[in-house]
Amino acid sequence: MTDRPEWTAEPDLASRRNGGGVVWANDELFAERENLIKPSKPDFQPWSFGHKGQIYDGWETRRRRSDGVDQAVVRLGLPGTITGVVVDTAFFTGNYPPFASVEACAADGYPSPAELSELDWDTVVVRSPLAGDTENFFATAPRRRYTHVRLSIYPDGGVARLRVHGTPVADPRLLDPGALDLAALENGARIAGCSNMFYSSPSNLIAPGFAAVMGEGWETARRRDDGNDWVSVDLAGAGVPRLAELDTTHFKGNAPGWASLTGRRPDGTEAELLPRTRLQPDTRHRFVLDGAPEIDRIRLDVYPDGGMARLRLWGGLSEAGRATVDERFAAAG
Q1: pLDDT of 1 strictly over 70
Q2: Which of the chain's termini has less CB crowding within 10 Å, N or C?
């Protein structure tokens, strides 16, 4: 959609697909809080009533008969800086909250909801009006690395999805710099460029875990020319790759026929890591990268087009790469 804010192309830090969780809500009588972070788009089936009323694909609280506010706390699957929030009220028409706000905090370890309530929370989105059955977009100014967000709705109602877009920032204390996925979103890698993302975002390529369905990978439109599609990734930090994984799982009639990998050295020159190599559909391919140099960016070329579930690049950070990870974490602290 061309009318969506540019920041919505950033990863959803709160998504269940990226490891997020809804750790607490003060009320969820009509619809469960866990729906807030489902990666899928909201759905609605008319005249589907349960014991508590119409079934909604979202979080819905009871009607308030006293002053107050309803809240839900989300643990970010990918802690990081926040560039924008989407409060999606899809299919909530006469029962959406008229206002909402979002706060965020940074917590070490694994605090309980009670412990989180005692922390200092920064306001990310001030109390703002919402429209019903609408994606409500709120751009934010990235300030620091957050681990949790708190959605407040005034006074009650239903929200289908909460999207928290931003940049993941890894905690270097939790990384093994000698052996990690240099291209992982959770370690600080990010998409630098892409030729085509007609069906799905290239950020899916470097997301955590395995793809559960084809839609959780990166897929391009069918090419009708002599070119090929590609995606480039800025690594978490400069390092020496030792093993590449090109995963076409779930892509059966639409996997690329071939692929190649090219690295960028810190001085800007290029190095071939994997020559054009035949791929099989619905397969995890692993390739040893003997003698690969230190690189800070990788480019995946697929021939001529198609879909890829995941791209992994296992190796070790160089001294410069370790400094990059440390500085990124310190700057967002």
Answers
A1: no
A2: N
